[in-house]
Amino acid sequence: MMIPKKLVVIAPHPDDETLGCGGTIARFAASGTEVSVLVVAGHLPPLYAEAAFETTRREALAAFKIMGVAQSAFLRIPATLVRDVPVAELNGKINGFIREIGPDMVLLPFPDRHIDHRIIFDACIVACRPVHAAAPKAVLAYETLSETHWNVAGIEPVFAPEFFIDTTDYMAKKNAALACYASQINHAPSRSVEACTALAKFRGSQNGCGYAEAFKVVRIVV
Amino acid sequence: MMIPKKLVVIAPHPDDETLGCGGTIARFAASGTEVSVLVVAGHLPPLYAEAAFETTRREALAAFKIMGVAQSAFLRIPATLVRDVPVAELNGKINGFIREIGPDMVLLPFPDRHIDHRIIFDACIVACRPVHAAAPKAVLAYETLSETHWNVAGIEPVFAPEFFIDTTDYMAKKNAALACYASQINHAPSRSVEACTALAKFRGSQNGCGYAEAFKVVRIVV
Amino acid sequence: MMIPKKLVVIAPHPDDETLGCGGTIARFAASGTEVSVLVVAGHLPPLYAEAAFETTRREALAAFKIMGVAQSAFLRIPATLVRDVPVAELNGKINGFIREIGPDMVLLPFPDRHIDHRIIFDACIVACRPVHAAAPKAVLAYETLSETHWNVAGIEPVFAPEFFIDTTDYMAKKNAALACYASQINHAPSRSVEACTALAKFRGSQNGCGYAEAFKVVRIVV
Amino acid sequence: MMIPKKLVVIAPHPDDETLGCGGTIARFAASGTEVSVLVVAGHLPPLYAEAAFETTRREALAAFKIMGVAQSAFLRIPATLVRDVPVAELNGKINGFIREIGPDMVLLPFPDRHIDHRIIFDACIVACRPVHAAAPKAVLAYETLSETHWNVAGIEPVFAPEFFIDTTDYMAKKNAALACYASQINHAPSRSVEACTALAKFRGSQNGCGYAEAFKVVRIVV
Amino acid sequence: MMIPKKLVVIAPHPDDETLGCGGTIARFAASGTEVSVLVVAGHLPPLYAEAAFETTRREALAAFKIMGVAQSAFLRIPATLVRDVPVAELNGKINGFIREIGPDMVLLPFPDRHIDHRIIFDACIVACRPVHAAAPKAVLAYETLSETHWNVAGIEPVFAPEFFIDTTDYMAKKNAALACYASQINHAPSRSVEACTALAKFRGSQNGCGYAEAFKVVRIVV
Amino acid sequence: MMIPKKLVVIAPHPDDETLGCGGTIARFAASGTEVSVLVVAGHLPPLYAEAAFETTRREALAAFKIMGVAQSAFLRIPATLVRDVPVAELNGKINGFIREIGPDMVLLPFPDRHIDHRIIFDACIVACRPVHAAAPKAVLAYETLSETHWNVAGIEPVFAPEFFIDTTDYMAKKNAALACYASQINHAPSRSVEACTALAKFRGSQNGCGYAEAFKVVRIVV
């Protein structure tokens, strides 16, 4: 049960969607789900050179292809400056993307150590409010290796998941997609493919399957 | 999505299952789900006269019939004395009921002001651990009007639901089932049919439907 | 006990004060309390047409009259842009209103899904710090139907009230005041008069009275 | 505002009532409140010699006299064995004491490191449920120096008070009452009169008065 | 910094100490720390055959030898029946072990899904109270694969660690010690050596080292 | 154990470092630790006259000398306007200070009622991420009398410390340093030397020593 017809994934930056739910995207896409990804921010000036944006966009498109993403869009907001966009404008753009597609499930980033993730989480929650009949029935927050686990326990929200998707048969695709992000994923302990695989193994061990991706439930309406 | 094939509801005492998820039982049963209810404790000596048990059991069976419950069992443990049953024995009995049926969804009581609810919550969680392939895929905790909302905010766990089941079309059946419990449901502000209907209306308003029952997700595995 | 002499209610937008504490205002006003309302933001450009502000202001004044509000003020900050006002300026305006009146009780909005509510909550808490002898002795946060209950459980603060005001005899006045807000209150499940009444019934059931409004205690000093 | 007519204080062991709310008892008694104290457990075999009970009981009565307690009772349950009393019996005894007096305010212990405090907290909360018209309108939990602050942050409930009673003018009486407990209060850092005074000074600094006692609100109904 | 002279590890059952802090034990022992382990409960009737106790005890002693444990003791309380031991007696036994050794660091189990872990956590916290000069200066709670992560998020305490010990160079010893527990550790997803290694890799990724064990700080006094 | 070689203290405004960890600074400096203080914001226009900055800077330097601070820097950002500095710029400045010194311990402000404290907390946590080998091994958050304890319990994070530093022998130096801040520390209940001493006495009573400073652990890696 719970294979959506249409899935929207909101990624703060290219690679967050693969780190957080690459196995889920691959599994659902293989099961017939139409998957759409919205990338909100990007590697743009003043923090990054203009060329960096195109590099990560190309990496993202290659990863999307491997995972079976049907369509994607990039909002081109400079990384770390998402909070400078007027609230109503940011909400409007994210809301527009979601309403046009009309998904039954939305995956959004957990509000963690990266300030863009927090601002985008807020905007996504507003966009997913159950105020009309087409609002998504399942809204889940995913974890992003490193950033999510640098929230301070006892002071900031902790990612304690209650929803798990078995990705045992899709780890190869996820790792292949991660490998596309040559400019982002490296061999540092905090964000390597090895660390990513270990996290999936640990999440699997929590719920009796081989590998899994974990989510915090924002809202499910049946 | 998410209509289970087999549903098990664990009720600490007769009426908790109707108060907490009577609309859900009625809706799922009408949709083809096989619903089984286990009532753990009952109105027995030393706190109640022996006859009280039979009264509430008859009321429960009448309510079960209205909601479409397929089968039920009563463990006959005296109310408020559940904690005196050896842990392994209580876990074993609840586990046995669940394993025999092999449900894909289990609804269990939130650990609230009533001590039996807390003990039974613990036993249910142990019984639902994902340690074998037949473990239930969806485990949810329901609220019980009055008891659940007497947990002390800031000291004890608060029922803050993220999972909602639209029961708009099944409120009549739920209220009819509640009406069977003549010995339990009364016109006191804390547990009247009016209060129960108001709660369902409020839960509905949280997620965009007319009436709803609310749940806290223990674990969902897809 | 606890009927204040002077009460200040801070409303982020017109109607929040009635949704959150209309029954309390009516009851206290009828008991001799001098009630003052400060409306911080309003329906102004760029999000709304200029005319919308006057409409809601007229609706608010009509509602205030029904509930017995003695005096009110409107800060005229455009909705969703409250965070753009310099912190010291916003704090100063709210602080100025409170200090001029010198209330013994202040009711302020819970920091929920609406970003204005969060910013105004912060400013109110600063304004109510116990740093001088005239600081208010009782400071309480009220809930706003829909917005408050869209905070994400487990990630954002949950409204779990411990303070209740019996409004059984003042529901008619509250509903009449709500009816004044023709442009705001509608028949959507999330914000209808029916949903509002259901919430009051549920809050009443938590503490043994017919209908009630619920609050989170920020600080009470006796 | 908020001076009760009748106040009930539940003390797990003799001295908890003075440590937690001695200044409040003295202030309210001096203001005309009828104060009643119920001491639940005591220094009895098997953990203590029989004589220890009488010693602490005499100390308690002396302290009660200084603070202005109108009446008191001792349930004589052996310390650390409160959990062995059947739940319904313990609830019944505490409930009986409260119902006979019919207080408008009840002060009860925070559920902290001492197991008796946890069991008695539970029983008091059950006894104070708002299920009849005479239920107490204000129910507050007090802190007990040392025990309360040994709960483990992030794992167990933390005492984060929102209700303060100014005891500046009653610290002398509180300290005199504490001095009666020669067998309990000593010069160890964790429970000395100096530590107790420092805590009151700190609580005072949180809310703008000289010295204060702090409480967690269980429920206030107006 | 922070290599203790004497370390005490409290294990509810044999294998918990290796699962939770086997790498730490091995690293500290190799650094000159005197490590002592107290095993509280065991595989005894009525839940297990008498012979099971000796099997797991032999496995434990083999594991202790590999990790470099200097001394150990077994309290021989039957598993799942720890709560039936009188509180004062259980506290006394654990306290006696700790006081005799006089450690500067104690590692104890997180209060999780296994009822014995909860009861023993309570007893350990009481035994480690800072009430005398020889009380341990660092008290930390460790996680136990599977049990710890079956606590229900939003209802029960979540293991959100803030203290990490780099065990990169001691994973081989930890795994060798785990391998001694042939009767306990198996290839089920929830408790295999693979899952255990994945958890250590994930914990390492949180704090910039290869592999790590994670702890929740109960108290550190410098 | 745990005396750092190099300590960095981040102070939002001059005096926060002394209020929160003046005793710790004095004790560590006396033990050979090289202590560096970064003051982020200051008393500058538009909220304060230009001259106020120099006054508090002189007071700070006098306090630093008493406590044994080896070096300090002032970023000269106007108080209450820290949030207007671009995130990447603020993070960069704090990160630069920390990386140049390479401390093994960092003390940073708890995110409390003062908006500058929240923004600076965020920036410090980013600067202390364990993403390179020289990242600080111990990161702790300190409390600031008054501001920290005005966070709203149940809505905002509560300062519930688990790490204590015994400052019994350094209270005289701390109080002398506080006395340097003639323009900041006064005789109001919320921030007097008396209140500060009472807090240290209370923190000491929690962990068995005379006086102490308390911290929340952000991360410790051994």
Description:
Six copies of one chain form a homohexamer. Chain A has 222 residues and is α/β, with parallel strands linked by helices. Chain A has helices at 16-30, 50-67, 87-101, 115-127, 171-180, 193-207; strands at residues 6-11, 34-42, 71-78, 105-109, 138-142, 163-166, 212-221. A seven-stranded mixed beta sheet of chain A has the order 3-2-1-4-5-7-6, sandwiched between helices. In chain A, helix 1 packs parallel to helix 2 (50-67). The radius of gyration of chain A is 16 Å and the shape is globular. The model of chain A has no long low-confidence stretch (mean pLDDT 95). The B-C interface holds B 145-146, 149-150, 152-154, 158, 160-162, 189-192, 194-195, 197-199, 201-202, 204-206, 208-210, 216 and C 145-146, 149-150, 152-154, 158, 160-162, 188-192, 194-195, 197-199, 201-202, 204-206, 208-210, 216. Strand 6 of chain C pairs parallel with strand 7 of chain D.
Using only C-alpha atoms, the radius of gyration of chain A works out to: 16 Å
Oligomer: homohexamer
Low-confidence blocks of residues of chain A: none
- Judged by helices, strands and strand pairing, the structural class of chain A is alpha/beta
- Overall 3D shape of chain A: globular
| Element-by-element helix/strand order of chain A | EHEHEHEHEEHHE
Total strands of chain A: 7
Mean pLDDT of chain A: 95
The biggest beta sheet of chain A reads:
7 strands, mixed
* Main interface by residue count: B-C, 29 and 30 residues
- Beta-strand residue percentage of chain A: 15-25%
Number of discrete helical segments of chain A? 6
What gap, in angstroms, lies between the N and C termini of chain A?
Answer: 12 Å
Helix content of chain A: 25-40%
Give the strand line-up of the largest sheet of chain A.
Answer: 3-2-1-4-5-7-6
